Amino acid sequence: MDRIDRKLLNLMQRDASRTNVDMAEEVGLSPSSCLRRVQRLRNSGIIDRIVAILNPTKAERRIKALITVELKLHGEQHMRRFLKIAVAEEAVSQAYAVTGETDVVLMLRLRDMEEFDALCERLFRDQTNVARFFTMMIIRTAKEETAIWL
Amino acid sequence: MDRIDRKLLNLMQRDASRTNVDMAEEVGLSPSSCLRRVQRLRNSGIIDRIVAILNPTKAERRIKALITVELKLHGEQHMRRFLKIAVAEEAVSQAYAVTGETDVVLMLRLRDMEEFDALCERLFRDQTNVARFFTMMIIRTAKEETAIWL
DNA sequence: CACGCCTTTGCAATAAAATTGCACAGATCT
DNA sequence: AGATCTGTGCAATTTTATTGCAAAGGCGTG
């Protein structure tokens, strides 16, 4: 994991659709040598996967919201049960167990408010062990970064 | 944007490293026809970009935290100024303006607590117009999805 | 329904890229 | 110094992407 590997990882986090030949030139290696590095980074698991990122405004699910959840009963199994339900929801894009007053934070991507309504119904009904929750609608996304710069 | 386009988008959000020939077979098209669809989806901007996703546990910045921020002065320019500062921080991976008691929510990716300390110093010092903030350390990541399933 | 128009498709040829074997250079350890 | 291991570039080979073209399907209009 030297300077060139880092350079490659940063390049590929920005744009993984470039050809190997192209990237090889940028990092100053021959195509074959560059390819072998990328393969090594993939096999080692440092590069987890290569994916397409859609433009959310051109796709569905334009509305984003954050929800903080306080559970009634804390403890491993209760936490696990709630997370399992939340994670199964398509509208839930991120789900975290956190420290502090709040137990769980969810990030939602919604088509419309009907979907929000239905989701709340499923997640926050009596039996699901939720004491209370706070919804924050996202007004503006100032940054949303999947990359980890090295 | 028909059934096959949606299928392609879902495929590529899962794994964009597959060859065109491979994907063509899966969606039941000839390679050339499939390629033209993908190119169209790219040119139209529905596919924003193709990127490598790193395994965070194998990279740096293992510690994640969420911060909710309440500003002293609300209003467009103050909000904008704070977001600008926050967004410039490498450790800030997501930044949102939200409705409710809280004004801003930040997602952090940290190397260690020293970095957290230094970041708070920069973001939450007097002149930056922050009334108060709450930190939630992320204990467990149950879901973290970049995809928008169609 | 017939017609023209537009889009999408598959095939085949071509161009470009990825992949592999191989020999060599540099670093490290003994 | 010698042995070993890793990484490199070159060249040959295989695989993939790309493009022209003719045909098929869909759609609205007369």
The first-level CATH class of the largest domain in chain A is given as Alpha Beta
The largest sheet of chain A is: 4 strands, antiparallel
How far do the termini of chain A sit from each other?
11 Å
Beta-strand level of the residues of chain A, as a percent range? 25-35%
Radius of gyration of chain A: 21 Å
Strand order, largest beta sheet of chain A: 3-4-2-5
Q: What would you say the CATH architecture of the largest domain in chain A is? A: 2-Layer Sandwich
Which sequence of SSEs, written as H and E, runs from N to C of chain A? Answer: HHHEEHEEHE
**CATH fold field value of the largest domain in chain A:** Alpha-Beta Plaits
What topology does this entry show?
The structure is a homodimer of 150-residue chains.
Chain A: H1 3-14, H2 20-27, H3 31-43, E1 47-54, E2 63-71, H4 76-87, E3 92-98, E4 104-110, H5 113-124, E5 130-144
Helix pairs in contact in A: 2-3
Chain A binds a DNA duplex (30 and 30 nucleotides) through α3.
How would you portray this structure in words?
2 copies of one chain form a homodimer. With 150 residues, the first copy, chain A, is an alpha+beta fold. Helices cover 38% and strands 31% of the residues of chain A. Chain A has 2 domains: 41 residues, Orthogonal Bundle (Arc Repressor Mutant, subunit A); 75 residues, 2-Layer Sandwich (Alpha-Beta Plaits), CATH 3.30.70. In chain A, strands 3-4-2-5 form a 4-stranded antiparallel beta sheet, covered by helices on one side. In chain A, 29% of the residues are buried. The model of chain A has no long low-confidence stretch (mean pLDDT 94). At the A-B interface, helix 1, strand 1, helix 4, strand 3 and strand 5 of A face helix 1, strand 1, helix 4, strand 3 and strand 5 of B. The structure holds a DNA duplex (30 and 30 nucleotides).
